[in-house]
Amino acid sequence: MGRIEYKTDQQLHWMAQAGVVTSRALDAAVQAAKAGVSTAELDVVFRNVLKEHNATSNFLGYYDYPATICTSVNDEVVHGIPGDRVLASGDMISIDGGAIVVDPYGKKWNGDSARTSLIGEVSQERRELSEVTRTAMWHGIAAMATARKVGEIGLAIENFVRSETGDKYGIIEDFVGHGIGTQMHMAPEVLNYAARDLGPRLKKGMALAIEPMLVTGGIGTRTLADEWTIVTADGGDACQWEHSVALHSEGIWVLTAEDGGAEELSKLGVTVKPIPA
Ligand code: MF3
Ligand code: CO
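A: This is the predicted complex of the input protein with cobalt (II) ion.
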């Protein structure tokens, strides 16, 4: 996967711009996600916000991916392609998207984030799946503030899921988080589950995409005939949340949250620090 890219605080400021654009575009897509709306319409909404901010999509054209977001509904885990599918009350959709902002030196900085949206009247089971996944993500992010090694993020995610809900949910292992910077996918891998090898040391200048995927059934997955959409093998529900997070010279900052994650992380006893000017 190549070498880890260590960013200066100044470079992380550019990344934060890509992160904020990603967040605003996701805000708009989540707002638009309602019963009767197609997933293709959400792609248009997201794409237009990128354009308004003079940003471009890192998804569009990635290994020929045809859209600016992934829309993964119900048993779809990740990489669902926007299309004619019309959302219905009771659906659960994860919307995953990203933006590229170019700095004055011509370097391209990436944001990558996903949120799950509940459409209309949604079952208590799906509400809980989304909330546990979201909170698991925040526990992983919180770990980044104090951890010594990257693998402690996955450990924190799995510890939270197991302590809160026992063996009720599976954590997907076929797809993992990643370093992010001048490319969307960079070293290191960021597992969303506990593993013996804790991986590389966490160091200042790292930026990581933390993106747990939880399922109600088994963790096996398969790819649909469109060669992108990943579904659970057993048809169980799946859910994903994701943020891109920086470890700068004075602490952590969630690049794809407008407040840097301050509100959610304060609940976990973590204080985020603005990236120094
Ligand atoms: N954003 C996804 C991830 O979280 C990757 C999407 S790949 C694409 O890593 F081709 F669909 F864009
Ligand atoms: Co990602």
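The chain has one domain: 9-266. The two ends are 31 Å apart (CA to CA).
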